[in-house]
Amino acid sequence: MALPTEKAARYDRQLRLWGDHGQTALESAHVCLINASATGTETLKNLVLAGVGSFTIVDSKQVSATDLGSNFFVLPSAVESSRCRCACTLLQELNPDVRGSAIEDSVDTILANSPDLFSTYTTVIATELPDATLQLLAKVLRSLSVPLIVVASYGLIGFHQKCKSCSDDPACLHLTPESSNFWVLVRALKEFVINDSRGKLPLRGSIPDMNSFSDLYVGLQKVYQTQARLDMEAVATHLSALLIGMGKSPGTVPMESVKQFCRNSAFLRVVRYRSLADEHCKPNLSEHLWRLENPDSELAYYILLRAADQFYSMYKFYPRGGDKGTSMDSDVGVMKTIVSNLLNSWELPPSILRDDCIVEFCRYGGAELHSVAAFMGGVASQEIVKILTHQFVPLNNTLIYSAMTCTALTVAL
To answer: What end-to-end distance do the CA atoms of the chain give, in Å?
Structure first.
């Protein structure tokens, strides 16, 4: 379906990346942001500019003086008023085609009273959440099959949180009436490869540039396009039979979706992530110990971020000292103990993390710096676009960014 001319002109550059069908998927999405922190609003800003259909901000906090130093989507006149409503208003000014709403409530209250609310969202972005709340949210979203993106900036550190053959995936082999269109298409593709094409995937219908006479090139292109159309029709026949067997109408999956699926069948990937609970219980750090031999490894900050979450759970503030009636030395001492206990529970040697890293990390005080928040917002929004458009391969599964060295590390934990 062709987009209107005005819209095509507005989104020209991104349409060249993910096409009309990708933009249509983006415009039908409803994204939820939990807490309008600097990192959260920077993430949402990029999605609003890209034309996401609608967004909702859930936040019970008020705008503070601290927000004014890092968050471009709050105003001095809004201090002590609703942070989510202020951010929602300013974000909507970026793109009048995007619908925005705000819920002045804590995520804990929603999880306790109406967790099904999250089923209405295409994806959820979480920032500034205590570890216990984050794990409960992750459990609820996993049961609802709603993707969760966790993004945070902590001083000079940024944080953002299993590929297998599609045709052999249990979700493909055992279809049910609740199966998504994707898995029905994968099963139809499997039937095509087994029965119709001698083990070959459908032709894309395009050929690369080459040295040739124009008439020969055009003739060859027509041959490929004809075969691609025949392959697509064969896949569509298998698809209709599968849908009928599931008690659904053959037209449940649009032909345009079948065409796009066949064109890109050689690039299909299924990425499965560990649950947040499994990761927090025992991350796969043992496979990456060699990285910690480098004193500047970003992986050390994953351990410190986890320790800071535990510190917050104990004291309701991040290690910083001074203004909370504690000294820097006492906060550092507590962090060292937490780090030691974490490493022991993960069966890792205590010597892998230097004391000076803990001291430097405590000096950050949990502050958000706008430059780091903006960078992490760009990373997170890019990953969300991949999820919403079902294009490109998303990160698997954790990215840690150091603004001190301007480097980032991606690891599967």
So the answer is: 40
- With both helix axes pointing from N to C terminus, report the angle between 181-195 and 214-245 in degrees, rounded to the nearest 10: 110
How far is C-alpha 9 from the geometric centre of its chain's CA atoms? 27
pLDDT per residue over 121-171, tens digit each? 999 999 999 999 999 999 999 888 899 999 999 998 998 884 444 556 778
- And the tokens for 180? 């998504």
Question: What are the helix (H) ranges across 93-213?
Answer: 107-113, 131-144, 170-173, 181-195
The secondary structure of residue 17, as a DSSP letter, is H
Is the pTM value of this prediction over 0.70?
yes
Please name the amino acid found at residue 395: L
Q: Which of 125, 4, 148, 3 is nearest to 55 (CA)?
A: 125
Integer-rounded Cα Rg, in Å, for the chain is 24
Task: Quote the DSSP letter at residue 289.
Answer: G
Q: How does pLDDT run across 9-29, given as a tens digit for each residue?
A: 888 889 888 888 889 999 999
Q: In what order do the strands lie in the sheet with 54-58?
A: 99-103, 54-58, 30-34, 123-126, 148-154, 157-160, 398-402, 407-411
On whether the CB atoms of residues 346 and 283 are closer than 8 A, the answer is yes
Q: Which two tokens stand for residue 227?
A: 């075969």
Per-residue model confidence as pLDDT tens digits over 318-349? 987 545 556 788 899 999 999 999 999 988 88
Q: Which residues pair with 101 in a beta bridge?
A: 56
Type of residue at 237 = T
pLDDT tens digits, one per residue of 229-247:
999 999 999 999 999 999 8
The SS3 call for residue 160 is strand
DSSP 63: B
Output 26-30 pairs: Cβ under 8 A, ≥24 positions apart: 26/50, 26/51, 26/52, 26/53, 26/385, 26/388, 26/389, 27/51, 27/52, 27/53, 28/53, 28/122, 29/53, 29/54, 29/122, 29/123, 29/388, 30/54, 30/55, 30/56, 30/120, 30/121, 30/122
